[in-house]
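Problem 12. The chain below contains 63 residues. Write out its predicted structure in token notation.
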Amino acid sequence: MAVGQNQRNRKNDSMLTKTGKARLGPLNLAQLTKLLETSTKPKEKDKIQRALNKLAPATLPTA
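Solution.
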């Protein structure tokens, strides 16, 4: 994680922001649901749920 480290020593991780928070955009439906189950903070759960709602209509088959 990038929090509390010098930027010169920080490894670039495309799944984390500069402050060490996880990026939810590139995750798929299964990864997001697993993350939602393991998350404990209400603010993080809301954020993951919004990402799921955003992703779900695009993955549902059309009739």
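Discussion. DSSP finds two helices and no strands in the chain. Students who got a different answer should revisit the alignment rule from Section 12.3.
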